[in-house]
Write a structure and sequence with these properties.
Layout (H helix, E strand, L loop, with lengths): L5 E5 L6 H8 L6 H14 L5 E9 L1 E3 L2 E3 L4 E3 L1 H6 L5 E8 L3 H12 L1 H31 L4 E2 L15 H8 L1 H5 L2 E2 L5 E2 L3 E9 L24
Antiparallel strand pairs: 1-2, 2-6, 3-4, 4-5, 6-10, 7-10, 8-9
Length: 223
């Protein structure tokens, strides 16, 4: 376990309009929808910040019982994801509070804009996580190490309650201005916490953090 909590600030990742449409629940794009997205992007992008804090831990496993150094958790799905891993990176990422303020503002005067900005926020935080993943992957490749798909609390059988432990060891509030309330909701809302497994072998993990492996069949964001 390392005592160092690292913090990174990123430039805005490339926009993925297809993902914004998916988060809006739109199967087909139209000129009006495209114009709405462009309008909301113009208002939103300059207000966002892209921040990540993270820390590395050694782990050991026994079937589905996993010692993460800072806590022990029983999770079959996480254990499957981390099979063969000896270390992990635990991280928290956020794009800041301004997107929440815009969502609230337009929720009262323009539900369409509010929905669109919600979708932009979802796409932006996902893109930030992908950027961080690729950054870590690149660093580890130089050491002949490989990464597993990131795995977040609330996914599969990993309970949301582990958020408390993540926030404790990452000092999220001080590092990137991210807080957790008693209902385990994060503020800013467009934020993510997750685990990335580190292993010596490129193969061996059959578990991907994808819709195909998710039990929430009625999710409106299902691909």
């Amino acid at each position: 376990m390392t005592n160092t909590i690292f913090t990174k600030f990123y430039d805005a990742p490339k926009i993925n309009k297809k993902e914004i449409l998916r988060y809006m629940g739109c199967k087909n794009n139209t000129e009006d929808i495209d114009s709405l997205i462009d309008d909301c992007l113009h208002e939103t992008l300059s207000k966002l910040s892209y921040k990540v804090c993270y820390r590395q831990f050694a782990i050991c496993q026994n079937e589905s019982n996993i010692n993460l150094s800072f806590m022990t958790i029983n999770s079959h799905d996480l254990s499957k994801n981390l099979k063969g891993c000896e270390n992990i990176i635990v991280f928290a990422a956020t794009i800041g509070i301004e997107v929440d303020r815009l969502i609230s503002k337009y929720g009262k005067i323009s539900p369409a804009k509010s929905l669109c900005i919600q979708a932009i926020g979802a796409e932006r935080i996902e893109s930030l996580c992908n950027t961080f993943n690729n950054d870590i992957k690149s660093q580890l490749t130089e050491k002949n190490l490989f990464t597993r798909p990131r795995f977040s609390p609330g996914y599969g059988d990993l309970p949301l309650t582990v958020q408390k432990d993540f926030f404790r060891v990452l000092d999220c509030t001080r590092k990137i201005g991210l807080s957790l309330n008693d209902s385990l909701l994060m503020s800013p809302s467009k934020s993510v916490t997750a685990i990335i497994g580190i292993c010596k072998e490129k193969t061996g993990c059959s578990f991907e953090n994808t819709c195909d492996n998710c039990k929430k069949q009625n999710c409106s964001f299902r691909r």
